[in-house]
TrEMBL record:
Pfam short name (any one): VWA_2
Protein name: VWA domain-containing protein
PANTHER family hit by this protein: BLL2463 PROTEIN
InterPro entries, per database record: Aerotolerance_reg_N, VWF_A, vWFA_dom_sf
Coiled coil: none
Matching SUPFAM superfamilies: vWA-like
Keyword Transmembrane helix: yes
Transmembrane segments: 12-31, 66-87
Organism: Gimesia benthica
Keywords, in A-Z order: Membrane, Transmembrane, Transmembrane helix
Domain VWFA: 96-259
Top-level taxon of the source organism: Bacteria
């Protein structure tokens, strides 16, 4: 930023050499002498000829000629236009200027008075900078959404820049400023970048893990109006067999808001509720729906008053097809089979009268290490130490008890273990400890006196739990905590299988789906052109961009015109909160106090004045047939 300097600067000062054209202009004008041929009846008129000679002297002619003055002014203004003058802003002029423009969901928020979005306002300001470009300046436009997207290379072509700027649209995604800065850093390897201009409404995380190699000019746009939106949506199957759908509605801090929430299941309205929220408040809503099979749920929020953002007023959720869990339990573990035998949500294997078994299970519980190689989502090993840990832990036949346990673990939630007696004691080997287990990806959930009692290991495909002692050789199966623990295990398996709990998918990526292997599928988004993607060798479609809220139609082999709904569900975007200071790794960057000034080119104004002088000269010369003034 700087103070405006009203003394003009000149980009092409060498154009002043054209002022030398004044010399031939004056010379030709002074030498010009036009005497009309006249018949005279008397020699007495020769006295008039003598007077005419005196008046035709160079200085007298120059003194009385308006036409000459117009021609001189015309030449002066043409030369000034060639010198390309501009009004200096007082700020340092960057020859290569990247302009980052926030295009995240909150940039669609509108002002209640002007009805302009934050993106519209940013476009107006950037368009002004483009119009005021000087000939030696180059601008590159970068859109900041869920990823950075370069709209133009460095160019001085105003037509290209304006066209790219006009095509920029808001995506229903949160912004990732860090990606845009890293892209700009990559651009700095090809061009000398000293400063970067960033236009945003400030709706992004305050702390950015990035070391600035250039100056960042943060232009914070004015805030939008009040907004209310849906920020989370999930569903959970209850014990009655129905589904509980949970919604969270949040209000921005500007004013009170009232709205109605409607739940639509497979095209039919099934519930409706009116809510009133104070500034910055949120409310959790719960609805119950019946769903025997797969079902599509849509939540619609209808604000009663002004609402700045539309994208967060809809949310989509799919209730999966219900099925029974496939569970393998080692016949030797009678306590676990007894605890699971009466559960109608699962099929227990191995079965006495059935020789065949599924290739994959949802849950495996076994006291044999070889059974942990079975394909399953959740595995529980009982009474042995995993082979890769045998050098760190050994089992001794000693009485021990639980010292502490992880109460936040999904397996041990609401489980009381303080009075459990154990006849097998896992013991650390010499110079071994928790850090050795953590290096192999294990986490200790239950601690004994001399070693760990229960371990957890997460892999990309499953979760594994290991009781390092035989639970049947302890008092655990006779405590109230044992059936609670088994119930937690079943609930965890249901969640991993995706048949007891589901969440609404959010932008910017479609949820993973599985169809036929290596087949092409057409995906029609709610906004934009149809995309063609190909499934992998396992038939999986993943990593597909979903930049807009709405339903995505999938057609192809096995898809049967499937629909996937994608929602915004971002509390930060809904809140419309503006960050006035960005904290980087080393220094903070505050929003600029005023709009950025730019140099104002004047050559077009001077050229226009010269054009009007040319018209005036033409009119003056043509007003009499002889072209000679009276």
């Amino acid at each position: 930023m700087g103070t405006m300097n009203f003394w003009p600067g000149f980009y092409a000062l060498q154009g002043a050499w054209f002022l030398l054209l004044l010399i031939p202009l004056l010379v030709f004008y002074f030498l010009k002498l036009k005497r009309p041929h006249q018949r005279v009846p008397s020699l007495a008129l020769w006295s008039q000829v003598i007077n005419d000679r005196r008046v035709n002297s160079p200085f007298q002619k120059f003194k009385r000629s308006i036409l000459l003055l117009l021609q001189i002014l015309l030449l002066l203004f043409l030369v000034l236009a060639l010198m390309q003058p501009y009004i200096q802003s007082g700020a340092e002029r960057a020859e290569y200027l990247p302009i980052l423009i926030d295009s995240s969901a909150s940039m669609a928020a509108t002002d209640p008075e002007t009805k302009k979005s934050r993106l519209d306002l940013a476009k107006e300001r950037v368009n002004e900078l483009i119009e005021n470009m000087l000939p030696d300046q180059r601008i590159s436009l970068v859109a900041v959404g869920s990823t950075a997207r370069r709209l133009t290379d460095f160019t001085d072509n105003q037509r290209v820049l304006k066209k790219s700027l006009a095509s920029l649209k808001v995506d229903d995604v949160p912004s990732q400023l860090e990606d845009a800065l890293r892209m700009t850093q990559a651009l700095s390897r090809t061009a000398p970048i000293k400063s970067v201009l960033f236009y945003s409404d400030g709706n992004f995380p305050q702390e950015i893990d990035f070391e600035l190699p250039f100056e960042l000019n943060y232009q914070l746009l004015p805030p939008a109006g009040v907004n209310v939106g849906i920020t989370s949506m999930n569903a959970r199957k209850n014990q009655a067999g129905t589904w509980d759908v949970f919604l969270r509605i949040e209000n921005s801090k500007q004013a009170d808001s009232s709205a109605s929430v409607e739940l639509i299941q497979d095209g039919q309205s099934v519930a409706r509720e009116e809510i009133v929220l104070g500034p910055g408040e949120s409310q959790r809503l719960e609805f119950s729906v019946d769903a025997g099979g797969a079902s599509k749920i849509k939540a619609i929020l209808t604000p009663a008053g002004a609402d700045s953002l539309v994208a967060d007023n809809e949310a989509y959720l799919t209730i999966p097809q219900s099925r029974q869990l496939l569970v393998y339990v080692d016949p030797e573990l009678a306590s676990y089979r007894y605890a699971l035998d009466e559960n109608s949500e699962m099929i227990l294997y191995p079965q006495p009268d059935q020789s065949s078994a599924p290739a994959e299970y949802d849950l495996v519980i076994s006291g044999a290490a070889k059974d942990m190689d079975r394909e399953a989502l959740i595995k529980l090993g009982v009474g042995f130490v995993p082979e890769e840990l045998e050098k760190y832990i050994k089992l001794e036949t000693e009485l021990t008890e639980v010292v502490d346990w992880n109460r936040s673990s999904s397996l041990l939630r609401h489980v009381q273990l303080s009075d459990v007696q154990i006849t097998q004691q896992p013991v650390w080997t010499e110079n071994s400890g928790v850090e050795n287990l953590e290096e192999l990806g294990y986490e200790v959930l239950i601690h004994g006196k001399l070693g760990p009692l229960l371990l957890q290991k997460r892999t990309p495909t499953d979760q594994e739990f290991y009781f390092l002692f035989d639970t049947d050789r302890s008092t655990l199966p006779y405590r109230v905590g044992f059936p609670i623990m088994v119930s937690n295990l079943v609930q965890l398996t249901l969640q991993e299988a995706g048949i007891a709990e589901t969440q609404a998918a959010a932008t910017p990526v479609l949820p993973v789906v599985e169809y036929q292997p290596e087949q092409s599928y057409q995906i029609k988004p709610p906004v934009g052109k149809t995309m063609t993607v190909k499934s992998d060798a396992n038939g999986v479609l993943s990593g597909i961009a979903a930049l807009h809220v709405g339903t995505y139609n999938i057609s192809g082999e096995g898809a049967k015109d499937a629909e996937l709904g994608v929602s915004l569900l971002n509390p930060l975007e809904t809140s419309l909160v503006s960050v006035e200071k960005i904290q980087f790794s080393e220094v903070p960057v505050s929003a600029a106090a005023a709009q950025i000034d730019s140099d104002k080119p004047l050559w077009s104004e001077f050229a226009l004045i010269a054009f009007f002088l040319l018209l005036l000269e033409w009119w003056y010369f043509q007003r009499k047939p002889t072209g000679v003034p009276t």
